[in-house]
UniProtKB/TrEMBL annotation:
Record protein name field: Bcr/CflA family drug resistance efflux transporter
Superkingdom in the source lineage: Bacteria
Membrane topology listed for this record: Multi-pass membrane protein
Membrane spanning stretches: 7-24, 44-63, 75-94, 100-121, 133-157, 163-181, 213-231, 251-270, 279-299, 305-331, 343-363, 369-388
Organism ancestry: Bacteria, Pseudomonadati, Bacteroidota, Sphingobacteriia, Sphingobacteriales
Molecular function terms, GO-annotated: sodium:proton antiporter activity; xenobiotic transmembrane transporter activity
Organism annotation: Pedobacter psychrotolerans
Location within or outside the cell: Cell membrane
Family note: Belongs to the major facilitator superfamily. Bcr/CmlA family.
PANTHER family per the UniProt record, alphabetical: MAJOR FACILITATOR SUPERFAMILY, POLYAMINE TRANSPORTER 2-RELATED
Residue stretches making up the Major facilitator superfamily (MFS) profile domain: 9-394
Matches recorded under PROSITE patterns: MFS
Length: 409
């Protein structure tokens, strides 16, 4: 494959992978404005974010079989068309329940881009090239949370929150055109592939019965739910309680993203000296300590903006070490069912993330406490899973530093 063609393909696949993160983060600075326009609370608006997480969780399990049955491009076209349709319908919402439903539909559409982009990397690039391409994609996805809320903050301040959905809709249109005219069909449809629930469920059950998967997938997903608790409550905490401006909130979100991205990149270096198993143990222990101190400060009303930023940064830094290593350890026992294991872990992450964001939205909008409370609960439950799970794993399969580093990116 010519070098120029490879660059085009990586750019298109990278842009497809960013649709989900942009959809999650870009409208966050508009929570207060959306609540005012729709005559509701910020907590109710946060449920539209929870609905998006639920949609992504369900979509991960849906698109895997569809991509194998019908090829890569048809499900991708369907997902993008659904996303575009629901994005422009968001302009006409008159109450928060309509927004919640449309965000769920939007998530089902955006999920096609994430699953298809990963599948097409495997199809279009050699085994030797794939890790570098995946690393490029993961870096683009990691940078998206830095750019999206900052851009959203300026867009909402200049125009209105509805223009975020205009932007996202046109972004998806460009992706659809690029997919139609520039992306090759990389996988021959398999008409014999069964879409019946039973064989698909059996495949997932086989994965779940593996103690190493269930232990580390739970650790990864539960700690990740702490990130979702932060994301869903951050508009209220920063813009309402600490009275940060929309553009200021965007910059804060970008700054905190650096903590997560930076530690996940540093993880690649540390793997040269320490095993994934040790890194997970140390990082999870540190996360439990930091989140407990954060909660104590919140309960005693000792927090201010800067202390809150510091504690969140510490929590996210620990997550940057936990998540890639736990994910790599969860997938290590599989070769045959790697696709099912990966989809199941992604669905578990988003499902628990949705639950965490719903729980946070149920609490008072006038206190910082719900954020550290859910983050602390996530860290402590994950530690319990680690202690119990390691007793159930008879022979733990370690991962190579290279494998964990690829997941880290």
């Amino acid at each position: 494959m010519a070098k120029q063609k490879k660059i085009y393909l990586i750019l298109i696949l990278g842009s497809l992978a960013t649709l989900g993160p942009f959809s999650i983060d870009m409208y966050l600075p508009g929570f207060v404005d959306i609540a005012k326009d729709l005559k509701t609370s910020e907590s109710s608006v946060a449920l539209s974010l929870s609905a998006f997480f639920i949609g992504i969780s369900a979509g991960q399990l849906l698109y895997g079989p569809l991509l194998d049955k019908f090829g890569r491009k048809k499900p991708l076209y369907f997902g993008l068309a659904l996303y575009i349709f629901s994005s422009f319908l968001c302009l006409a919402v008159t109450d928060v329940n309509q927004l919640i439903v449309l965000r769920f539909v939007q998530a089902i559409g955006s999920c096609a881009t994430a699953v298809a982009s990963i599948a097409m990397v495997r199809d279009l690039f050699t085994v030797e090239e794939s890790p570098k391409v995946f690393a490029s994609l993961m870096l683009v996805i990691a940078v998206s949370p830095m750019l999206a809320p900052t851009a959203g903050g300026y867009l909402i301040s200049t125009l209105s929150w509805k223009y975020v959905f205009v932007f996202l809709g046109f972004m998806a249109i460009l992706m659809l055109l690029a997919s139609i005219f520039k992306l090759p069909e990389s996988y021959k449809p398999d008409p014999n592939y069964s879409l019946k629930p039973k064989p698909i469920l059996n495949s997932f059950l086989t994965v779940l019965k593996e103690p190493q998967f269930s232990t580390y997938a739970l650790i990864s997903s539960i700690t990740f739910s702490g990130l979702f608790a932060y994301v869903s409550s951050s508009p209220t905490v920063f813009m309402k309680i600490y009275e940060v401006t929309k553009t200021g909130y965007g910059w804060i979100f970008a700054l905190l993203s650096v903590a997560f991205i930076g530690s996940s990149q540093l993880n690649s270096l540390i793997l040269k000296w320490f095993s994934s198993k040790k890194i997970v143990t140390w990082a999870l222990t540190a996360q439990c300590i930091f989140s407990l101190i954060f909660l104590i400060f919140a309960l005693n009303d000792w927090l201010n903006l800067y202390l809150t930023l510091g504690f969140i940064a510490l929590f996210l830094s620990c997550l940057g070490f936990i998540n890639p290593n736990a994910a790599a350890l969860a997938l290590a026992p599989f070769s045959k069912n790697a696709g099912s294991a990966s989809a199941l872990m992604g669905a578990l992450q988003m499902g628990l993330g949705a639950l965490a964001s719903v729980v946070v939205s149920l609490f008072s909008e006038h206190s910082v406490v719900p954020m550290p409370l859910v983050m602390t609960a996530a860290a402590l439950i994950a530690m319990l899973c680690l202690l119990v799970g390691r007793k159930l794993i008879k022979s733990e399969i370690e991962v190579s530093a290279d494998a964990a580093a690829v997941v880290a990116h």
